[in-house]
Amino acid sequence: MDPSVALQSGLANTSLPDAVVTTVDPPVTADILGQPISEKSALTLADETSSTLTAINGTDRPNLQPHSTLLLPSFSKTSNFFRNVQWCADGSSLLGVTERASLEVLDLTNQANTVELKHRVSLPQPAPILSTAWFPTASSLDPASYCFVAATRDAPIKLFDASDGRVRASYKIIDHRERFIAPHSMAFNMYMNRLYCGFEDAIEVFDVHYPGEGTRLHTVPTKKSRDGIRGIISSLAFAPDWTGTYAVGTFSGTIALYTEDTGAQVQNWLEGFEGGVTQTRFNPAQPHVVYAGFRRTQIIARWDLRNPSEPDILYDRGVVSTNQRLGFDLSPDGRWLISGDEQGQVSVFDALGEQGRVGTVSAHQDSIGAIGFHPSKPYVVSASGSRHFEDAESSSSESEESEELEDVEVVVSGVGVRGPIVRQKQRGPMVVDNSLKLWALQ
């Protein structure tokens, strides 16, 4: 279907909710790409860039240079950090999800030829945030579309106005015990009229224009069935070819392809690699190419849907041994793939598989949980941070320093005696590097 026709039949004729809605409560044959070719602090990534269409010249290797570093005041001397960051459609704003359950909206400003990220609004949430998604055409220049959805544990999904944080609408997923379920993944379809939400053994589909409850697609027909896909739906991604095809990944290690027209019927499987799926993504310029990232492995796998039985390329992005989601991104023209590892190294690969790894840079001092190309300007954003705990030996060796003596009254054999009581300091997670960095492509 022609995209213009699709848009006219979708969101163009109706508007998003703009009022607050109250809710009642294995071995593979592919080659592993990638030995670092540079130890320089600058990434050998693109030459000349365009600020109007794509961020990278597809014929040259990008050149990534440090631009600026942002540390929110609330992050100072705390263990808070960004778990995920996402550009909106035109790149005018950035949505961040923090470790301490807060949604942060930042604006990319350009004043007096100075580009920087400025904080717009902070939205603390009552519980951990499991997933977020910008509306597909979100722009700070268009108030109607400037919004995003966020899923907080044990609460309805909320559609937030990004300008001031007010709730425009809410969408409820309710289980058989009348409890709210928060999805681990969300994605809008290409027509922008439906919101797909993945949780355990099911996908809930909402009509964006009608808040409330949605339609449930069970990915497992029955409890004892061996068909379908089991587990938590951890990632959803739509193909950019307007066919309604979307990829579904689970923490149990399955990736399947569905279409909007066929409901819960699996259309194909992506096989040949096992691991809990953390992200799936279609190439924006080649809809038949799919990428996936996994838990506790450094591999990003690529499939050509014309041969989905095994990945045709495996990208080695560095050290990854954690369950934390470490994201990757593709340049707007589909030419380059970028990702970080848990040691703060950023790697850039040829997404078409012709050159493998084209460069590395030491970007942070901690795990890079999120990284993304700006959709239209020559910038890349990266966010780092993870929870670190002292090991047992370190705790015992430093126990004397961590003890506090309090002169309090205690009772011994019925007699009040004043003396010292040893109290152990509470130990919590530490963060090594919780910075957000903006990189310039030159």
Which CATH first-tier class would you pick? Mainly Beta
Structural class computed from helices and strand pairing: mainly beta
Characterize the main sheet.
Answer: 5 strands, mixed
- Write down the Rg: 24 Å
CATH topology: Methylamine Dehydrogenase, Chain H
Whole-number total of structural domains: 1
Helix content: under 10%
CATH architecture: 7 Propeller
Under CATH, the homologous superfamily reads YVTN repeat-like/Quinoprotein amine dehydrogenase
Mean pLDDT: 82
How much of the sequence is in beta strands?
35-45%
The beta-strand count equals 32
Cα(first) to Cα(last) distance is: 38 Å
Poorly predicted regions are 1-14, 19-59, 392-419
Number of helical segments?
3
InterPro entries: SWT21/TCAB1_mRNA_Telomere, WD40/YVTN_repeat-like_dom_sf, WD40_repeat_dom_sf, WD40_rpt
Protein name: Telomerase Cajal body protein 1
Pfam families: WD40
Region (Disordered): 384-405
